[in-house]
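Weekly structure sync - notes
Attendees: PM, LS, DV (DV joined late)
Agenda: review two folding runs queued last week.

Item 1: First target. Sequence and structure tokens pasted below for the record.
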Amino acid sequence: MRNIRTKLVFGEEVFDKLQNAKILLLGVGGVGSYCLDCLYRSGVRDITIVDFDRYDASNQNRQMHSENHEGELKVEALKTHYPEVIAMAEKITPEWVEEFDFEPFDLILDAIDDMRAKLALIQKCYPKLISSVGSAKRLDPTKIEIRSIWKTEGDPFASKIRNELRKRKFNGDFSCICSSELPLIKEKGSFVGVTGAFGLAMCSLALRRIK
């Protein structure tokens, strides 16, 4: 049976909750695609994915299934591998966040890297939000942590988010997937051993929240 080993870990009652949970995953790149795979393999079936981008050759070092779908919309390509997901090929902007109805979802998983859209998400959805911050430019997955956005260390991107939230007088809180490893380079390099592990950590926290 497909999910028997997952059920052994979570138990029947919790596994039923996983199957009935309604998850919104924003961004299905280096972090989000691994999170999606983990959610799906763990028995979650009601998953909506949102991303406007298409695969190109530069994605192949870090994004799940990218090598087989160059030029295709990511969400449509992923739907061929995870047929039960709801795919939305839309650009996530502050305006999109303002208009979108997040109410039906149990959890919102943020795997985007656009600062303005991220801030809009935080302000609107933080009680249901799990956010990924800086996963690129790093090599050590053992430095990945789950922390309050107010308590990350070694992550310049998270620091910028905090500064912007203070300017907006935001005083809420939410969990983020972060790394205490300082960025190793200035360029936009990435290593799947870290970006993929960020996605798996996000999935793990989401499943434990549903539990």
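Item 2: Second target, run right after the first with the same settings.
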Amino acid sequence: MIFKRILLKLSGESLMGDLEYGIAPQRLSDYAAEIRDARDMGTEICVVIGGGNIFRGVQGAARGMDRVQGDYMGMLATTINSLALQAELNKQGVPTVLLSSFEMGPVSELMSSKKAIQYLSEKKVVIVSGGTGNPYFTTDTASVLRALEVKAQIFLKGTRVDGIYDADPEKNPGAVKFDELTFGEAIQKKLKVMDITAFAMCEENQLPVYVFDMNTRGNLLKVLNGEKIGTLVK
């Protein structure tokens, strides 16, 4: 095992599977099984999930909705996904704690780095919902923030493609994949790894980013065991 503690960022859109919106039960089960297997090998895991399968604040703003209101709706969407993942992990026998960036009463506990680290040391999977708790910040930025707060060794971004390419591989079959990049190279090449705020936080705090295909069973364990199946940015 290469990494003792990780931050795993999951895409809300990926939870849709073949659906047009919402949560595909099989995809949710597969993700939970991947996390269960990683935890069973001794990895401490903090998870952040996007909410794009339910609602995205930026899309709402593009249709004329107030951006602040839309972003708060997006934060609630991440909470729905987080609750679903928590339920599935519990079903698979994995002790899981849900923390939130804002007060959610009986649904979750309020996020604090001290609390999250304590739960991780107790070998519980920690899911953090609600983004940063503030509008105008993406889930990528929230994920990097949580990674730094829990002192994760690496930021793992699970997507539906197997790394970073010089063009969209789903649209351009000739796109070239990068095995490794520096932060400077990624910025110079204008590669859309994540939003610029999140990327700058990773670079400033020397937090490596690894982008890989989360939709292929067993890939998370491969990453944790050091197999080069995605793209490393450091």
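Discussion on item 2: The longest strand covers residues 5-10.
Action: LS to circulate a short write-up before next sync.
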